[in-house]
Amino acid sequence: MISAVLGMQFGDEGKGKLTDFLSDRFQVAVRFNGGGNAGHTVVVNGKTFKFHLVPSGSLRCETVVLGNGMVIDPHALIQEIDNLRASKCKASIKISKMAHVVTPMHKVLDRKEEEIRSKLSIGTTAQGIGPTYEDKYARTGIRMIDLLSAEILREKIDTIFRMKESLLKDTEFSSPSARETMVLDLFRSGKLLEPYMEYTEVTVRQLYDEGKSILFEGAQGTMLDIDFGMYPFVTSSNALAGALSLGAGFPFRKVDYVIGVVKAYMSKVGAGPFPTEIQGDDAHNLRELGREYGTTTGRPRRVGWLDIPLLRYAIKMNDADALAITRLDTLGEMDKIRVCVSYKKDGQEIDYIPRTFREMDDLELEYIDVKPWGKISESLIKEHNFAVLPEPMKDYIKLIENHLKVPVDVISLGQGRENTLVRDGSRLRDQEPFLQDSDQSL
Ligand code: IMO
Ligand code: MG
């Protein structure tokens, strides 16, 4: 089976957890967008792994791929590969020669651009994502393959510096010797990463032709998509399912099953419109219950109630076949739960998602109240049986299915892999795990 896991909200939906959970059913995991801005947390046997660049399937898949659509900080990647190897991960790692390289200069540019935006600042993760994609589209970007030549690196760094001199003039990179140190440093990291570099679109296609099952792991979420999100408060790449065609070089027509990951409530880091955002005690309680602090930046996340109109849009844009709902354990503990079921203007329901603050001004949100289901016991979770779950939780899931007309195939009731339930009737049930329990050291 060829599948894709995508975020349906503002990122941090639990894509990493889901990808890891599914990784014993897929032989290959592929990342196709974003870079170190992604923060994917995986908990196995009480041990926490945080992935930013390598796919969250790395602990169990045979092969993992970092596609051409990604932007990669080579140092951070070497560190992540070292950590994986120290955890006895045996996955074969393939890095696209055409993925773009994030340098320390790009991280400085990210901060400088945010300063200049001032009131309009996005609240980026400061990982150099925007400036690296800018260079890619300006056709001055550094690709992974360029790390293998100090001469090419020197020329490209020099070109980028000259193009962005007004931003870099008062920084450490204004000194030619600092730039030369960076060139040599990048060249050294290229030597370390060379054994992993390939034209990964060829690799992925070969694996497909061999009949391997492949899971594409999206980073960020629909509302952070550069085209279809809340521009300009978005990331610098596409985050929708279709982005895998270009970000991994694999035809979307061949994807059998798209899973949209939905957190049971909303969260967002960074600035920008957030229709169902809540403030005050409810927000504080939800943030603390859900430990809603950024994996990449540690920033407190903004939180809000589930937003059905926004999810309806995300499901359409990604053509999601099914949903995985995460954090139901967290939400149930709130003493009050609300769900936004429609957006209205002048009393009339609207069928689009307003994308600007101005359009949001006269937006009316219609909410319904839902009964909380309290704390769920470990023993109940371990039963892996939908029937025994608390009735109000089942009603919440039915409400989501009724409004969105898409089945909820996976339910996540805690961070650990074992706290996950696949519903009867889900197409995932046709895809038996490859790994036996005895193989599952990681
Ligand atoms: P995962 O994969 C949540 C947000 C940033 C900021 C905006 C632009 O963990 O879901 P950028 O650094 O990309 O230029 O920042 O996008 N953002 C994320 N928010 N989860 C993410 O990734 C994010 N990646 C970027 O907070 O608002
Ligand atoms: Mg995250």
Key terms:
single chain; 442 residues; alpha/beta; Adenylosuccinate Synthetase, Chain A, domain 3; Adenylosuccinate Synthetase, subunit A, domain 2; 2 domains; ten-stranded mixed β-sheet; four-stranded mixed β-sheet; 19% strand; globular; binds 6-O-phosphoryl inosine monophosphate; binds magnesium ion
Report on this model:
By secondary structure, the chain is α/β, with parallel strands linked by helices. It has two domains: 2-89 and 199-440, Adenylosuccinate Synthetase, subunit A, domain 3 (Adenylosuccinate Synthetase, Chain A, domain 3, Alpha-Beta Complex), CATH 3.90.170.10; 100-193, Adenylosuccinate Synthetase, subunit A, domain 2. The protein contains 15 helices and 20 strands. The strands form five sheets. A ten-stranded mixed sheet has the order 9-7-5-2-10-1-11-15-19-20, sandwiched between helices. Strands 14, 16, 17 and 18 form a four-stranded mixed sheet that branches. Strand 16 (337-345) and strand 17 form a beta hairpin. The longest helix is centred in the middle third of the chain and has 18 residues, at 176-193. Bound molecules: 6-O-phosphoryl inosine monophosphate (IMO) and magnesium ion.
